[in-house]
């Protein structure tokens, strides 16, 4: 039976006497904090991009009812990590971590107005002398591609660039010499730095210089632009393409338009495809129809040297994947593993061990394995800046990565996609891991279709699309039913050669990890459509 008020009072007195402890939070404040916590849990990243529906964050509720907001380092108050910067598109906290980008936020927002696509790179955390990448800058009609390079304000590069600006051009930017400049050249330099930021073109890049960025930076600043740039760029930007400063190929305009074009794929009807066998014979396949697709994010798979008998990359352990990532990042995998990397890797390995155990599972219980398998490279990333699902994914990735304090954002991505996949499969009641995917019975499907490169997100659009249309399958057409003279494509791929302009709201959404094989074929189609078969790729 429930306790009476008098009995509750006696119990509280007994607790104080026995434990030498008494509560410091009143019931009303405790209930308010609980409501705020659940608001943050339900809406971890605040308002949606389109802002058609406004949500109240935990801090906004706290302010409304008159209690203190969460301090940046208050682990009990916050939901999830506490060190997301105020400028992040993922931060909803009133008291948050400062960012080096706060001084240039309004400048970048203004500079990206009118841009359809933003191509950007960063050289931060050291004293930069030069930018290795050469961009292509064109002011023409049609799709507007804007190129930005973020560099430290206190760097040799900025110092050299502003010295070369002619006197007449300085005046046009509102930077004029005064009689006092001869005695105080440092003051004139500061005026030039302030007046020329975001106005100079260097190697095809509009330079944005960031204060206090010439020294080693915390993870939340080093990865903010790469993983979660939404709050910096103008709402007019449709796509943003990040390119690592050490990427071996300088991106040109065609590269940018081609990659953005790969974020959409039209619906595919049932179709035939042929594949040459080792004996020289051609085998005919019938491929199922597939729905149209849109990628919230686009990147390439991690390169490693182990392959299966069918020629596909073999499954590798978390430890092996980490070593390949270190090679990709230019690090020595033979050196002692960094503390942050080791802690993160071992945590994921333990999660995999405990979640996948069958000891305490009922034989009738669905079995969804935690299996890290989406290994990627992040030397370049295409972000869709208009989709709320894309922002949610960026924030999940960014939030997961910054807490480990290391450079391997690829490892965080694998974990985020695995947990999201489990959540989606449970929510959609998809077949569990007792059921093998279609390509295990017909491994040729991996060569005939790119469906396995599109990783579905949890959205109502995806549920509706795939309830009415199953995932990609293929059947082998019997040899006696195949005309020897029949011609057809060697795969069932259809490549998009156009940059998506509309943002249809009913398209199934994915993350696309596009392979080099598919990329090369798609680029050939792109060249044929845009340049009569001559590729402009460097």
Give a nutshell description of this structure.
The protein is 33% helix and 13% strand. With 538 residues, the protein is α/β, with parallel strands linked by helices.
Strand tally:
13
Mean pLDDT, all residues: 84
SSE ordering:
HHHHEEHHHEEHHEHEEEEHHEHHHEHEEH
How many helices in DSSP terms?
17
- Structural class comes to alpha/beta
Radius of gyration: 27 Å
> Sheet bearing the most strands, described?
10 strands, mixed
The percentage helix is 25-40%
**Shape from CA axes?**
globular
Give start-end ranges of low-pLDDT stretches: none
**Percent in strands:** 5-15%
Characterize the quaternary organization of these chains. single chain
Question: What is the CA–CA distance across the termini?
Answer: 78 Å
Word description of this protein:
The chain is α/β, with parallel strands linked by helices and 538 residues long. Strands 1, 2, 3, 4, 5, 6, 9, 10, 11 and 13 form a ten-stranded mixed beta sheet that branches. Helix 2 runs antiparallel to helix 3. It is globular and about 85 Å long. The termini are far apart. The model has no long low-confidence stretch (mean pLDDT 84).
Helices and strands, with pairings:
Layout: H1 5-19, H2 27-42, H3 58-65, H4 105-111, E1 117-122, E2 145-152, H5 156-163, H6 167-172, H7 185-196, E3 201-202, E4 205-210, H8 219-222, H9 224-227, E5 239-243, H10 253-261, E6 264-265, E7 271-276, E8 282-287, E9 293-301, H11 318-328, H12 339-355, E10 376-384, H13 388-402, H14 409-427, H15 445-448, E11 454-456, H16 460-468, E12 474-476, E13 509-513, H17 516-531
Parallel strand pairs: 1-2, 1-5, 2-4, 9-13
Antiparallel strand pairs: 3-4, 5-10, 6-9, 7-8, 8-12, 9-10, 11-13
